[in-house]
């Protein structure tokens, strides 16, 4: 009888409230640490399509970072990526959303391991490859890009400027396919502006990249891939 009454005592109620408060504080601390880690250090993303084949496949798991790891040396200290880097593109235009909605979206992504976003219907994240930086002159012929780096007097293929080798998937097109048709294998020369970057899909039959978006800004490139850790037989540093 005494034990039953004690649970309704003031001291027992106070202890329950204190334990509940500690639990919520713990969740809050974990949430803040998680957001700090994913915003400034590391985050894990699952490739959800095959636009980066043959180099990445649907289901591959990558670790991204927003800063350069010690084994990487960049020619430009202001950038965390270079030509050829695989990056995470944020096309959600979060700055256009009201703050309460952005906070709620962060909470939803936290508790669903970033698999669900309430803002996803207004845009989404994309894994792409950077092939050109501000000031670069870029063109495409037969789905292969040539890039004249800013300050250079000659152009090179995208592969010669990349810090890591990769292979694109070149679509087979009919001989009747004319260069004037939209999304053909050719692109007229363009020069990127001061805050413009050109990102592409490794599968060149997919045009969901800068060929349709146009160039993107530095703020839209949120992180760079540094490691593929799944599947185990394809573990790779980028």
Describe this structure in words.
This protein has 238 residues and is an alpha+beta fold. The protein has one domain (41-92, 123-237): Umud Fragment, subunit A, CATH 2.10.109. Helix content is 24%, strand content 23%. It contains five helices and eleven strands; from the N terminus they run H-H-E-E-E-H-E-E-E-E-H-E-E-H-E-E. The chain has helices at 2-6, 10-40, 99-111, 158-161, 210-213; strands at residues 42-46, 61-65, 86-90, 125-132, 137-141, 144-148, 156-157, 187-191, 198-200, 221-230, 236-237. The strands form two sheets. Strands 1, 2, 3, 4, 9, 10 and 11 form a seven-stranded antiparallel sheet that branches. It has a four-stranded antiparallel sheet with strand order 7-6-5-8. The longest helix has 31 residues, at 10-40. The protein starts with a helix and ends with a strand. 22% of the residues are buried. Mean pLDDT is 79; it is low at 73-78.
Q: Order of helices and strands, N to C?
A: HHEEEHEEEEHEEHEE
Mean pLDDT: 79
- Separate helix tally: 5
Distance between the termini: 66 Å
Kindly state the number of beta strands.
11
Overall tally of structural domains: 1
By CATH reckoning, the class would read Mainly Beta
Shape: elongated
In helices, the fraction of residues equals: 10-25%
Give a quick account of the main beta sheet: strands, pairing sense, barrel closure: 7 strands, antiparallel
CATH architecture: Ribbon
CATH superfamily (homologous) name: Umud Fragment, subunit A
Low-confidence segments, given as residue ranges, are 73-78
Structural class: alpha+beta
- How large is the radius of gyration? 23 Å
What is the CATH T-level topology?
Answer: Umud Fragment, subunit A
